[in-house]
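Example (one chain per record):
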Amino acid sequence: MKIDFPNYRIEAYNPPNPTTPAAQRQDNAASTTPQDKVTLTPQLRTGIDNVRSLGMLVLGGEKTIDEWEKRGLTITDETLQAAYEVFNDAFRDSVKNKTNGFGFNRHQIVANSQPVPEWFLVEQEAELAAMENKDVRDAFMAGKLYYSTSNNSPATDTYRRIYNA
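Predicted structure:
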């Protein structure tokens, strides 16, 4: 297992096999080979790594993408690029309009970027139907790829009152 962070690479520790003789486990524990140790090494990320990471984040993360792949939907690099571009558009809009944040219509981003199976569209409909925020649901049902939240939400107003007290 390999976990990538923006500036570090962490390789997981491989636990000893309990059926291995004790003397060999001790030798393995003292070993200096990379597979027996946890390493934390600086690693520069390339532009494409950032595009893929942010694209995966927009689509729900690696776990979601893995679940889709198990069901037969492989997310293409073009779809990750499209999701990355939606993230950038949402971020620029958020900065320009001074909004609190944004949410993504991940199913629509994928459906706009590559062919999808029928189960995926059913999953999209179920996710939209389960949304409690009517404004977000309506925007996503209309095909909007992201929704920016307003600075005038009750939660923000409460926060401002507490902060400025």
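Caption: The beta strands are 2-4, 8-11, 39-42, 101-104, 146-149.
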